[in-house]
Amino acid sequence: MRVVRDAASLKAAVAAWHAAGERVALVPTMGYLHEGHLALVARGRELAQRVVATIFVNPTQFAPHEDLGRYPRDEAGDIAKLEAAGCDLLFAPSVEVMYPPGFATRISMGGPAEGLEGTHRPQMFGGVALVCSRLFGLSGADVAVFGEKDWQQVMVVRRVAADLALPIEIVTVPTVRAADGLALSSRNAYLDAEARAKAVAMYQALSHVAERLKAGATAAEACGEAEARLGEAGFRQVDYVALRSEDGFEEMSGLAKPGRVLGAAWLGQVRLIDNLPV
Ligand code: PAF
Predict the structure, then answer these.
(1) Who lines ligand 1 at CB under 6 A?
(2) Whose CA is nearest to atom 2 of ligand 1?
(3) Pocket probe mutation, ligand 1, options 54, 109, 131, max atoms within 8 Å of Cβ
(4) Is 3.40.190.10 the CATH classification of the domain at 186-277?
(5) CA angle in degrees (0–180, nearest 5) for 126-131-133
(6) Phi-psi region of 268 (alpha: psi -120 to 50; beta: other; left: phi over 0)
(7) Which CATH superfamily is domain 2-173 in?
(8) Could you read off the pLDDT tens digit of each residue along the chain, which spans 278 residues?
(9) Domain residue ranges in the chain
(10) Which of 115, 174, 188, 226 is at a distance of 20 to 30 A from 18, taking alpha carbons?
(11) Catalytic pick among 18, 34, 37, 65
């Protein structure tokens, strides 16, 4: 696997593959890779002859008080995992390569960026839309693969790609979970043993919502019960448990059509998010 850090080398590699008639899949990440990321690489290999992974801890999606400075990093370990997964190229740029001097574009997202994560992390989706658009443009990839663990992010990326007519297909991969159901996340590295044991309550609470909705409960009833369960399990603050439609990401009062139940809550200083299709 080649590791490149500048835009010209990335473009040249993808152009050579395209000239040979090969399709290219992009897997954007912030590194500290786990099985969930490797499932994205595996899906990329099914969709294209070549897979480009990116590792960039994107400062524009972090608010000043958030964990940019302490976000877990292990580039050597990530390279070994990507090589073993059959990735062809890693693009691991510096901040100066991604946002060179004079870079002045910002993206303000409405639609699926509103509410839930958009309320609790107002910085995030403009930054995600910006970095993904730039990665799509720099790479010229044909298809980009994202994990469903960040479902609202997927909705935002699909929206920005459609709105800006970016010539790339967006494909998603279901969330990879630990044996007890906890969604894999790089931020799980922040959990100590006690918090890790409690963390599974998020998956259990969302599963409870899914079951109650299928049995005819309203979203208010089912999500309220889940919030109470999270509190009882030791989460100190629940940011939201909510039901949104799967197609348009609209609020739903009950299970009128396929949806996603989404949750975010704090275990000590660690914020966990997860979602389930329902
Ligand atoms: O999900 C992530 O890891 C990041 O938000 C992404 C999509 C790589 C953009 O920085």
Answers:
(1) 28-30, 58, 61, 128, 131-132, 150, 153
(2) 29
(3) 131
(4) no
(5) 95
(6) left
(7) HUPs (3.40.50.620)
(8) 999 999 999 999 999 999 999 999 999 999 999 999 999 999 999 999 999 999 999 999 999 999 999 999 999 999 999 999 999 999 999 999 999 999 999 999 999 999 999 999 999 999 999 999 999 999 999 999 999 999 999 999 999 999 999 999 999 999 999 999 999 999 999 999 999 999 999 999 999 999 999 999 999 999 999 999 999 999 999 999 999 999 999 999 999 999 999 999 999 999 999 999 99
(9) 2-173, 186-277
(10) 174
(11) 37
Which residues are CB-neighbours of 96 under 8 A, at least 6 positions away? none
120 is catalytic: no
